[in-house]
Amino acid sequence: MEVKEIVKEGSISGTYLVLDSQWRVARNGSPFAALRVGDRSGEIALKVWEITEPAFNQLQKGKVIRLQAVAKSFNGTLQLEANGREPFFQVCREGEYDPAVFVPGISGPRLEKLWAVVDETRRGLQQNAYRLLLDHFFGAEEFRQRFTSAPGAMRIHHAYRGGLLEHTVGVVTLCQTAADSYPEANRDLLLTGALLHDIGKLDSYTGELTIEGTDQGKLIGHLVLGVQMVETAIAAIQASKGEDAFPLTFKMPLLHLILSHHGELEWGSPVQPVLLEACLLHHADHMDAEAAKFREALRQHPGKEGNWTAYNRVLKRSVYLLDLEAEESGEQTS
User: Fold this and answer.
1) Is residue 92 domain-shared with residue 120, that is, in the same domain?
2) 163-172 pLDDT, tens per residue?
């Protein structure tokens, strides 16, 4: 049974990936485990009461388990429950499961369309310096493979294989519209910043079944890592084609866009946007990330029943399910 099929109370069985595992103690002093398990269709909370420490130690993040539990409603949301005194799970060994079942990702025609946007955008730039820089990255097959499989985040938005590519294209598309709406903005600078704003995430995350932060990502952060990658690429271009191939006047504004794209100091940007292009990039990045949170909440809504999703921990609210087709149908039949 996939997570998306868990839509009512009752016994369930299935094979799931442990996404989070915490040891806790109830008010009565009894230990229990608070976990989240999932597959590519979604995730769900799992509470294991009266669990022993040896059993808990087997239920660590990244493990794939065959699970037998009971779905129960708690505060209006379904969760799984199991008794730790009974044999309720079995840890799967490598080779006993298909990783693709647990790792959501983008493939096929959708992937090809995303890459078409990237390549058409970079080919359409007028400034040779920016075209050279983008070709340095996106013209290299190894880089494209890494970019194809990279997540856009660990948990908050686009947290799946291909998420970085999907988010980047979303930001690029918004910036293309912004460039049309605000002709004062330098289109080439804005679109180059959109394509490169999150490349530091390639060195920030790792993992096959679960997404983990690297030491680099935790200690330095993807904004600074991205700037370092761009500076290294520019230095390589200048070494092979001369200093004039990438003037400082092109370099500094681009670095500013990467460093300021979170918009506010408290949101992780070392500097706030001071260029129109940086302002537009920040809002495009924020808009795409926020929209992704709502889309994920809708995707995980089981059964598509009712007017509201379950409480979403990321958004800190439930999402209303708009059904204008039903409203229109009702008006026509009345």
Assistant:
1) no
2) 999 999 999 9
Q: In the structure encoding, which two tokens stand for residue 77, read together? A: 């949301």
Residues 6 or more apart whose Cβ sits within 8 Å of residue 33? 21, 22, 23, 24, 46, 47, 48, 51, 56, 59, 84
256 and 150 share a domain?
yes
Residue type, 265: L
SS3 assignment, position 150? coil
What are the pLDDT digits (tens) for 80-124? 999 988 889 999 998 888 887 887 788 789 999 999 999 999 999
Q: How many residues does the chain have?
A: 334
φ and ψ of 23, to 5 deg? -90, 125
CB-CB neighbours of 293 under 10 Å: 16
The first and second tokens of residue 233, run together, are 């690429």
* Residue 244 and residue 266 in one domain: yes
Same domain, 253 and 121: yes
Q: Do 81 and 154 fall within a single domain? A: no
114 with 250, same domain: the answer is yes
How many C-beta neighbours within 10 Å does residue 225 have? 22
Query: Is residue 46 domain-shared with residue 114, that is, in the same domain?
Result: no
| Residues forming beta bridges with residue 39, ordered by sequence position | 42
DSSP letters of 247-302? -HHHHHHHHHHHHHTT-SGGGT-SS---SHHHHHHHHHHHHHHHHHHHHHHHHT-G
Q: What pLDDT, in 10s, does the model give residues 137-185?
A: 999 999 999 999 899 987 778 888 899 999 999 999 999 999 999 999 9
Cα–Cα distance for residue pair 140/228, rounded to 1 Å: 18
Torsion-angle region of 108 (φ positive above 0: left; ψ -120 to 50: alpha; else: beta): left
Q: What pLDDT, on a 0 to 100 scale, did the predictor assign at position 213? A: 87
- Three-class SS of residue 75? coil
